[in-house]
Amino acid sequence: MDAFDPLKHAGAKARGKRPWFLENQDTERLMTIVMALAQEVSVMRQRLDTVERVLEKKGTLTRADIEGFAPDKAEAAERGAWTQEFIARILRILQQEQDALQRGDEVSSEQAAKDFQEN
């Protein structure tokens, strides 16, 4: 069995034309990169949480302890809450803009850009 080569698989993609969801493809590329980084940070945060919990319980640490760790129900709930807060912080600007548009008390970024170009 060959070892997994992440560089070989980094360019793998689904067949067919890539769908674009945003008008500006550069914006979508950037958002995709940021979300991939956020996913990596979240995974690293969970791994750090595992290290802290194992050290707290045992006072020592091995790689097998980390790989074999399974959070109990309360620990899993705590991790889930942290992940939700993390995502909310990352996407806060989108939520704030959406809230402002619904209230109608703030100029949208699109309107601000139009106003800037016209003046």
Structural commentary:
With 119 residues, the protein is an all-alpha fold. It has a domain at 24-102. Helices cover 71% and strands 0% of the residues. The chain contains six helices and no strands. Helix 2 (25-58) runs antiparallel to helix 4 (73-90). The longest helix is centred in the middle third of the chain and has 34 residues, at 25-58. The relative contact order is 0.06. The mean pLDDT is 88.
Please provide a brief summary of the model.
The chain is an all-alpha fold and 119 residues long. It is 71% helix and 0% strand.
Tell me the number of helical segments per DSSP (H or I, 4 or more residues long).
6
Largest sheet: none
Judged by helices, strands and strand pairing, the structural class is: mainly alpha
How much strand? under 5%
Report the average pLDDT across residues: 88
Query: Secondary-structure element sequence?
Result: HHHHHH
Q: Low-confidence segments, ≥5 residues, pLDDT <50?
A: none
For the secondary structure, the number of strands is: 0
Using only CA atoms, what is the Rg?
A: 21 Å
**Amino- and carboxy-terminal Cα gap:** 64 Å
Residues in helices, as a percent range = over 70%
Keywords:
119 residues, 6 helices, flat
Write the layout of secondary structure elements.
Blueprint: H1 6-9, H2 25-58, H3 63-68, H4 73-90, H5 92-103, H6 109-118
